[in-house]
User: Which sequence fits this backbone?
C-alpha cells in the first residue's frame, strides 16, 4: 500500500507529502506553506495525517499549482491561510468556474467561500523568501511551477511528472500549443527534487 504520509529527503527543509489522490505538500518552514490541497474525496486522509505534523490553523499560505478539483478540494481545511494561484488561472476561474475546476460542486464551494485568490507572483516579493513562481501554461493556461530554492525542490503540479512525463493538454482550459515551451523552460532552473501533483 502506498504511504499516505511521507517526509521527503530534502535536507534541512522539512517537506511532507500527503497522498490525497493528488499530492499535498507541506513546507514546514517558519511561515508554513501548503502546495495544493488534494481531492475532496480524500479529505479523511488529510484530516487524519496532516495534524500529526502541524495543526491546520498554523498554515499561513496555500499555493495552488492550478485549480483542478483534485488539487483544491480541501482548501477549506486551512482557516488562517491566504490563497494563491497563477494569474491566468484566476482569470479563467472568474470567467468559468466549472471549466477551470472541472467539477461543479467544488467550483461552487470555492466561489461561494470568502477566499480571495491572489496572484502567486506576489509571494516572490512578500515572502516567505526563496520561492520562485514560474508560469508554465499547457496543462492549464494558468498553471504554475513553484521552485523553493533553499531546498532545490520544484513543485510541478500537472505540468510534468517524474521521468519527464508531461501532463495532459486536452482539458477545457488547457493551452496545448504552449506546453512544449513550458516544459523546456523548466530546464533553465536548478532543482534536484521533483514534487509532482501525481506520482505517475
Ligand atoms: Zn490538473
Assistant:
Amino acid at each position: 500500500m502506498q504511504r499516505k504520509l511521507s517526509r521527503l529527503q530534502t535536507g534541512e527543509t522539512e517537506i511532507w507529502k500527503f497522498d490525497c489522490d493528488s499530492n499535498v505538500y507541506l513546507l514546514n518552514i517558519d511561515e508554513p506553506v501548503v502546495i495544493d490541497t488534494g481531492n475532496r474525496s480524500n479529505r479523511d486522509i488529510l484530516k487524519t495525517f496532516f495534524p500529526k505534523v502541524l495543526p491546520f490553523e498554523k498554515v499561513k499560505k496555500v499555493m495552488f499549482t492550478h485549480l483542478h478539483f483534485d488539487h483544491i478540494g480541501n482548501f477549506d481545511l486551512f482557516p488562517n491561510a491566504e490563497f494563491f494561484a497563477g494569474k491566468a488561472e484566476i482569470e479563467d476561474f472568474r470567467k468559468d468556474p466549472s471549466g477551470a475546476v472541472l467539477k461543479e460542486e467544488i467550483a461552487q464551494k470555492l466561489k461561494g467561500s470568502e477566499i480571495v485568490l491572489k496572484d502567486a507572483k506576489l509571494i516572490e516579493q512578500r515572502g516567505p523568501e526563496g520561492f520562485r513562481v514560474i508560469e508554465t501554461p499547457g496543462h492549464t493556461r494558468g498553471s504554475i511551477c513553484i521552485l523553493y530554492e533553499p531546498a532545490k525542490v520544484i513543485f510541478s503540479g500537472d505540468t510534468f511528472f517524474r521521468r519527464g512525463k508531461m501532463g495532459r493538454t486536452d482539458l477545457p482550459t488547457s493551452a496545448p500549443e504552449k506546453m512544449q515551451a513550458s516544459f523546456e523552460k523548466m530546464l533553465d532552473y536548478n532543482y534536484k527534487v521533483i514534487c509532482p501533483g501525481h506520482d505517475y
About this structure: The chain is about 25% helix and 25% strand. The domain at 5-196 is CATH 3.60.15.10 (Metallo-beta-lactamase; Chain A). The chain has one domain: 5-196. The longest helix spans residues 43-53.
